[in-house]
Write a structure and sequence with these properties.
462 residues, alpha+beta, Phosphorylase Kinase, domain 1, Transferase(Phosphotransferase), domain 1, 3 domains, 19 helices, 11 strands, 42% helix
Length: 462
């Protein structure tokens, strides 16, 4: 359990454990940070108070707590929260478990935006390692979801809360009950069928989908609607939500989310192998470079070509328009804008639609204010959002020695390092420069960070 304290504890001791702070509270009871004086280590104590529930509920909850202790106690793995002890007092039952200093994955995903691809793949690999170990030891978690996944300060993901886990030879039965959390449940959990490790892998795939796209594949206003989607609908390909993702990743996730268990990956190792063999986009700085503008003159509308042969052609898009969109987006999210604009524009390349492109890209801007600024830049009447895009936002008479497209391309590259102010700086320095090389030198001098300045100089060929 995570180690961020909420409120002062109401009790001072529980069994041998000295209570130090309250970590959280839920329907079952309270989780405390505590100290074990016998071996001198801090632990998290998950408790169930007898007097809060009637006899039937109390028996079920105590059985669930014991089940969690049994499941966690047999799983010693670096990616599973360790369970150390189970105990009962006159009015409380508790388990002592590993105290994880970090935060829950749910808190990271609640922002509604994708995680960095490398981070998502790394954490998911750790989740698969934990599930593979649990399944090999006869334990099916049955409630994999972000709220049950913790990330330590060192970046290690840990699986928690085996309260509803199925343990081979366990006496815990919840006949007729749907066990799990609806948005993350497998089809067989909804229908009450027996579950095995493939159900955990289905739930894990939903978590990966959310990490990569910022949204869940199955959503609805009610449990019934979520169940209908899980049972009867195929979710959107992840790349439809996040254009930075590859078709290979789409294929892996779509297989992992198959309705029939025998159509999915059969083991966590199978799932991991498929991910290992799926090409994923590397850092966009090594995949794409901004389009190169001929010094002979500005590109005509529709003739823009970006470097990156593995990516689709966007010859129907006005080059200046894409450059303007990239510049505005880069000012909010940095260099990944190059890749995102390209991938978002590709599906509608046959009929370029600027509002549609902006709508596809806006969810990638993390802050509400930044997202609003990005969208506003392309609203009707905005000079940056017209068909001619950035070409009309610059006055060619101010820098007669340079082409408008050349200045806009330089501003686009500068925006990666300076943000939205790059357009102003580029226009100012262009009026003082007699050549493209001189402009690039002036723009490089405007970047205060030496490392960023070197990268910019490399980007523009200095």
């Amino acid at each position: 359990m995570t180690g961020a304290a909420m409120d002062p504890p109401r009790i001072t001791h529980l069994g041998k454990y000295r209570i130090e702070a309250m970590l959280g509270a839920g329907a079952m009871g309270v989780v405390y940070r505590a100290f074990d004086p016998h071996i001198e280590r801090h632990v998290a104590l998950k408790t169930v108070r007898h007097d809060l529930f009637d006899g039937g509920e109390r028996a079920s909850l105590l059985a669930r707590l014991r089940n969690e202790a049994q499941a966690g106690g047999r799983l010693a793995h670096p990616n599973i929260v360790g369970v150390y002890d189970y105990g009962e007092t006159a009015d409380t039952a508790f388990i002592a478990m590993e105290l994880v200093n970090g935060q829950g994955l749910k808190q990271l995903l609640d922002a509604g935006r994708p995680l960095a691809l490398a981070t998502a793949v790394d954490w998911f690999g750790q989740l698969l390692a934990a599930l593979g170990f649990a399944h090999a030891h006869g334990v099916v978690h049955r409630d994999i979801k972000p709220a049950n996944l913790l990330v330590s300060e060192q970046g290690r993901l840990k699986v928690a809360d085996f309260g509803v886990a199925h343990v081979e030879s366990s006496t815990l039965t919840l006949a007729g009950a749907m066990i799990g959390t609806p948005c993350y449940m497998s089809p067989e959990q909804f229908t009450g069928e027996s579950v095995d490790g493939r159900s955990d892998l289905f739930s894990a795939a939903i978590v990966l989908y959310q990490m990569l796209t910022g949204c869940r594949p199955f959503t609805g206003a009610s449990q019934a609607e979520v169940m209908r989607q899980v049972m009867h609908e195929t979710p959107r390909a992840p790349s439809a939500c996040n254009p930075a993702l590859t078709p290979a990743l789409d294929d892996v996730l779509m297989r992992a989310l198959a309705r029939r268990p025998d159509a999915r990956f059969q083991t966590a190792a199978d799932f991991q192998r498929a991910l290992d063999h799926a090409p994923v986009p590397a850092d966009d700085r090594t995949i794409l470079e901004a389009r190169t503008v001929s010094p002979d003159g500005p590109l005509a509308s529709g003739s823009g070509a970006w470097r990156g042969d593995s990516l689709p052609s966007l010859t129907m898009w006005p080059a200046a328009m894409l450059a303007s969109v990239e510049m505005q987006l880069a000012g909010q999210i940095g260099p990944v804008a190059r890749l995102l604009v390209r991938r978002a524009a590709a599906p509608i390349a046959g009929a370029p639609d600027l509002p549609a492109l902006v709508a596809l890209l806006a969810p990638h801007v993390p802050s509400d204010k930044g997202r609003a600024l990005f969208v506003a830049a392309f609203e009707e009447g905005s000079r940056a959002g017209t068909t001619h895009g950035a070409a009309t936002s610059l006055d060619a008479s101010r820098f007669p020695s340079l082409g408008v497209e050349e200045v806009q391309a330089a501003a686009s590259k500068l925006a990666v390092y300076l943000g939205p102010i790059a357009n102003i700086v580029a226009k100012r320095e262009a009026s003082r420069s007699g050549s493209l090389e001189a402009l690039h030198e002036r723009l490089a001098a405007a970047i205060s960070n030496e490392h960023d300045r070197s990268r910019f100089r490399r980007d523009v060929g200095l």
